[in-house]
Amino acid sequence: MRPDDPAEIGRRVQRLRGELGLTQRQLAEPAYTPAYISTLESGKVRPSEAALRHLADRLGVSYEELATGRPAALGTGLRLRLTDARRALATGAPEDAAALFRALHEEAVTHALAEEQAAALLGLGDCLLESGELTGARDCFAAAERLLADEPLPRRVPAIRGRATAHLLTGELRYACYLLESTLDELGAAGLHDPDALLLLYTASIAPYMDMGAHARAAHAAELALALAPRVSDPALVAGMHRGVARTLIAEGRIAEADASLAKAQELYRQLHIRTELAHCHWMRGYVHAQDGDLEHAESELRTARSILASKRAALFTEQVEVELADVLRRRGKTAEAEALLRPLLTPADEKDDAGRDTGALRAGRGAVHAGGAHRLLGLIAEERGDTEGAEEHYCAALSLLERSSAAGDLADLCRLLGDLLRRTGRVEAAMDAYRTGLGHRAAPGTTTLGPAPATPPM
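That's the XRE family transcriptional regulator sequence above. Prediction below.
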């Protein structure tokens, strides 16, 4: 039975009146009659707000507590503990924070606090993203979105962005773009130009755009995010924007500007004590140095990122960094160390390590783009030592993973590698097929299949 059901309210009134030793007449006067109190206590009438406020005043409780059965400070206390759980996720292991969010969610359900339920589910979804439980994360974000169904769309944007991120990490790049773009269109059509919501959506769209090869669309999203940033007061949102924008600057060859943007994000995350995002900044700075040919500094930054993420037990992100670190190690001639990093990431999913945990996290449905990258690197290593059969096997495995994710740029590069290998081994027709496939991905990198870009909001 709902806590605001007339029978529940009636029972609360009767209990509180009994605890104070008041008669029905004493409680009713001067505004109401004893007969009305009797009818109310029997659950036969739904009291008006005015009646509830009168009764609450006479019974010495708050209006909210009498109307809902919840102590006045319960919602405030829950929100404070949700903040503490967020802090635990920022600084510690996701599974520890997940336990806090689950307990808070159960408490919010018990007291029918929909807003707090949604906040707990959003936090739990973020925990599951870090630990790589992408299906569970997606379910949490979807449940939060349903709880907020009657709220204005900007209130639902963090849940939508969470769902899009889960699909992105799964390798469903096109669907991630669809979620973000359709929400932007809906905000625009409704005239809901909320700066925080828009910044969150534009920043989140940069990664799938880049992975799909839609660089022009990513650059436009970055420009809009930069224009929105002065109207946003949340430093975490601004830091995320700087990190996202850096990726488009890297693609344009503006390395110094990208590094400066990452430095701004890094400083904000350091002030906010958000260690996972701080690790992502080290990760991206490693990528910047690698693109600029400074492999020594790239290795240092990636090792720092890996160390932070491993200490937080953020499993999926740790494994993704290890793929990029392995690339730098291979380029530095540390082939054995690179291979030792990569092979455990691709162990069959049903195998366990010595501690009985699942291994081989990177696979289709969970980190597919980086799984493809790991196979690509192992193919290169095999080719460098003359194992053409092993190289071909890894390239084909990578191709299968990346085709499902629509990662256009990576696909084109992989088709070139496979084509070169096939040509060197005398299979010219097969090589031509591989080159044609690569050219097809390069010709339309995520532009003809995404549909029209969302309308630009008024700034």
